Amino acid sequence: MALAYILLGVEKEGFLFNPVQKNRDWYPHIRDMLSAPFGEFHNNRASFITFNYDRSLEHFLYTTLSSRDRSGDAPDAWAKKLWECVPIVHLHGELGKHPAFTGPEEREGKAIPYGLDPTPDFIRIASHSIRNVHDQVDLDSDPAFQQAYRLISQAEYIFFMGFAYDERNVMKLRLGQDLRDDAKLFGTGLDLTEAERVRVQRMSDNKIMAEHIIPTDCVQFLRQSHAAQAVYKRW
Question: What is this structure's pTM?
Fold first, then answer.
């Protein structure tokens, strides 16, 4: 409940759309990589897997994409399109369902609007919707992890953004199983030393190569990574 209270309190549109450090805000870069007219948005083949609880990414994409192109459909249609074409999987749960991505039958008792002050009811809903790294999860039956494994097995490119490479989380991703033969893995590694990047490579059974971890933040990674720029051009 303490986690839910604190994190709901910082799910604010002011923080999201007017960040203190704009030069380190990578969401606009991701949005631009995905941006397409409504009728062509299905050509995106991106998906996101996160250990975070907050709904900031989906709220940012939904708000900015639906306001950019009003030529074809209402925001509700954009929400449906975004959810169908660019899945966002919260492995450890999320702070309640975002109303834009929740059907009417699911909103009762599960949905929490983005940006509202945390009420006792919101805190209760959110606290029941999240779990921490110590909670026991059956990875072979958990819906979120099963969806993540399907997405990972289909991916040609896998990017780790702002990832701390905690060994428990790396192991949960099961990178040694079901990767495509041509899968290419890259990631950020802000402040990681060469020795630490080599440790990540060993820990991932040589799936994440040390030389593919760029010691920079997410914005610079998206700008400097040849792989990220290649994907940008293909989308």
Answer: 0.91
